[in-house]
Amino acid sequence: MKISDIFLSQTRINKYINRTPLLESPVLNKKVGGRVLIKPEMLQVTGSFKFRGACNRILQLTEQQRHGGVVAWSSGNHALAISAVCAMLKVPAYIIMPETAPRMKIEGARGYGAKVRLYDRATENREQIGKTIAEEIGGVIVPPYDDWQVMAGQGTVGLEIMEQCRELGIVPDSVLASASGGGLVAGIATAVRTLAPDTDVYCVEPAGFDDLSRSMVEKSRVTNQGNVATLCDSLMVPTPGALTFEVNRRLLKDGLVVDDAEVGYAMARCFEYFKLVAEPGGAAPLAAIMAGRIDVCGKTVVAVLSGGNVDPAVFAQQIVR
Amino acid sequence: MKISDIFLSQTRINKYINRTPLLESPVLNKKVGGRVLIKPEMLQVTGSFKFRGACNRILQLTEQQRHGGVVAWSSGNHALAISAVCAMLKVPAYIIMPETAPRMKIEGARGYGAKVRLYDRATENREQIGKTIAEEIGGVIVPPYDDWQVMAGQGTVGLEIMEQCRELGIVPDSVLASASGGGLVAGIATAVRTLAPDTDVYCVEPAGFDDLSRSMVEKSRVTNQGNVATLCDSLMVPTPGALTFEVNRRLLKDGLVVDDAEVGYAMARCFEYFKLVAEPGGAAPLAAIMAGRIDVCGKTVVAVLSGGNVDPAVFAQQIVR
């Protein structure tokens, strides 16, 4: 992936996406002793950055491919993004979701007109179901991260960050983004490190799902145990993507790990300082900063908040203490 | 107040404020059968639009006036805005707040370094206290709405809306903003109706505090009973401002009134569709749209969401049902 892929992706998707602002809070800055700029992707269409990659990928399908439709599997943000892009472009969408997925996400995908096929996590394989459907209908599978055009779409977050920093007349010391499959941080790192080679990019992962951080140390892809609980439902992929890891192993400075208490605290501060709803995975980079996983004293740091699709009860529990 | 006052205000405050985005939700649009664009001023510094007017006014003080300091009374958003602007410009701030003001707002003002003088609502007069302090210290009183420069600062919300609509290639059919003293909607109406004379501007008020709506009907300023309860703590001014009413009586199309249940419902939808924290008064324009107070079918409507400074427990109560 090159900066040109991201630049052309931006040109392609610009009129469909929200250009999310870069925000800061004088109270937070004072508290951490540095300058923290947040990139609130919960304000993106469908409530997460996933809309960018889905948009970039689906806009490039041929007329015939669009006619067949798009097939995807996801329990959350990727499902909503694919459904919304397909609704917008009048392309049929088939989403494979676990029976146990949050009601609001299943209903959300259906609300956009997607056909949702529920499956049993214990007895069925979602990729197999997806491939079968794709063959039957002549549809195209759009994977959640391990795809160059999806990654280039997510990279527009990084390109916007650098453009917005330029408008402010600053070069950030570092940029933090959460990692599940690693597509978001791979796209961001490509944009940021091409345009500002001295800026460090970090991935942030929840405890027990630090596969990318450990893979960077091991210099090869390792897998999580998987039977650990985490608040960060959107960051539970067991292994880094093959393509994303090729990018991330070269470009990332390091991996940072946060626990549930730190994530909950960051969700509450996001409410207090920014009036934003962050889902647990979306608050992880802010959690890493506030927990002191990285030294921000006197530095300028950008934290990408990836999404805000969280159940009201879960959110309420984190902000009321 | 003329468009030039607002334009020059924008030039003055631009580097200090957040240019809040104009956002929309395909799900909300589908639900109401029209296009609803929101202007989320909870993302403004200090969590409300008040920062704009405070900034514009205080930046124009002379060196000598800045030395003396700024005096203001408020139980909420104006207090936070004045305190933050003064901290930024190193001007002493004296805020008179009721003993019963929300703890987070008192602590918020103090956190910015303001001197907070608490008073007893039953036995003391805040304006008298303010005037006495201002005389003692040689300070300047910055009123919350009945001031041309404060109004011009709030008007930058309207100017940004029109610029952002132009970028989208649209002219909105109407713009809705909440009214307490009426400074926000007066500034917005001046900008919007000067640049797009066919666009209607409406004020939105909570039931029991519809003084501006009734004053427009009566063609003179009327007062609320005042002993009514409302969720909208930020919209409880008893009478329209003298200066703001001169503007609003000429420029507003009409007044819309919403009740607590409609406001709570809009806060929950704001969480769901936009991942934004709206305080009750901040959600009032969205409440008016969703309650059908105005026909948006096939129309393009802008709703200004004025702020997001709400107690976590109050917010949680509205989103979890």
From TrEMBL, chains A, B:
A Pfam family: PALP
Domain Tryptophan synthase beta chain-like PALP: start-end pairs: 15-307
Alphabetical list of Gene3D superfamilies matching this protein: 3.40.50.1100
InterPro entries the UniProt entry points to: Ser/Thr_deHydtase_PyrdxlP-BS, TrpB-like_PALP, TrpB-like_PALP_sf
A GO molecular function held by the record: serine racemase activity
PROSITE patterns tied to this protein: DEHYDRATASE_SER_THR (PS00165)
Cofactors required: Mg(2+); pyridoxal 5'-phosphate; Mn(2+); Ca(2+)
GO biological process: D-serine biosynthetic process
Keyword Magnesium set for record: yes
Protein family: Belongs to the serine/threonine dehydratase family.
PANTHER family to which the protein is assigned, alphabetical: SERINE / THREONINE RACEMASE FAMILY MEMBER (PTHR43050), SERINE RACEMASE (PTHR43050:SF1)
Protein name, per record: Pyridoxal-5'-phosphate-dependent protein
